[in-house]
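Researcher: Can you fold this with manganese (II) ion in place?
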Amino acid sequence: MILVLKSDITPVEVKRLEEKLAWMGLHAVPSQEEGRYVLTIVHGTDKQVQAEQFIQLPGVDQVLPLTQKYKLTSSEVKKQRTVIQIGNQSIGADHQVMVMAGPCAVESEEQMDITAKHVASAGATVLRGGAFKPRTSPYDFQGLGEIGLRYMQVVAKKYGLLTISEVMSIDQIDVTASHIDILQIGARNMQNFNLLKAMGETQKPILLKRGLSATYHELLLAAEYILSTGNSQVILCERGIRTFEPYTRNTLDIAAVPVLQSLSHLPVVVDPSHGVGIRQFVPALACASVAAGAHGIIVEVHPNPEQALSDGPQSLTLPQFSDMMVSLQAMAGALNKSIAK
Ligand code: PEP
Ligand code: MN
């Protein structure tokens, strides 16, 4: 249930109404929609309170049904798109595309410096790099840990970039948040509910990747865990799903972009690198993602993919990244959008 409050209601009256609802066994989360106060009832909806009872409460103007289980994440509750401010950049506005680029894993300061310099000059605004790596095999490179985060922070500052890096467990949140601008939850952790709740308590933007075989509703409910714990700065990420097709690493689900944007007000980005797993096909899918309306692209780039310690086959070379940026700019331009600078 969504309660749209009267336009002249005061904050004190809103508080009183929340208390009244709590007394009725209902927990409501306040927000503002086009200048109007809105209360979204998130707990206690099993109580059989009828719409007529709500409309009689002081200050309530309209009562709207909430049909989805994901409530705070839903476009039913918030019609305007969420635009997340990250340093001097923002993501979520329909006319802009944010490009995040860098290696799968941070390997050395030199590797990060070369990559950051190149992607910044080609037009990316966010440097990606994993310091805690979720590898399929325990014998594969597991990441440099905190020293890797420090390398990212140093080179990102040097070239004026923001940073994004994955957090795999609750104990990695604080250290990652102290060096990095955007925290990533990987596909394998999309339904690690304790991690989601703990991430909800940070005040950093979070990029939440779709699980390997998660439905849209499962992804949105995972986002709901973060929003319901107090952090509404969530970016949804389509990164390919498991299908019967073995040729590519995953199957990139382009439909996820417009569908998630219609179901939710949160920004949607696409990771074509994990989506296809083969570098040759990454630029075409990045362009398709922009064409479908993605608010951003996160892509793997390595100065020497043949020597990469993780995901070399899907990492673009530096010149390939530059070429892809030219195509993305043209695609964005054709849609009256621009690549965020
Ligand atoms: C990554 O971004 O390097 C990564 C491990 O992604 P995903 O969680 O989508 O597999
Ligand atoms: Mn990777």
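Model: Folded with manganese (II) ion in place. The longest strand covers residues 36-43.
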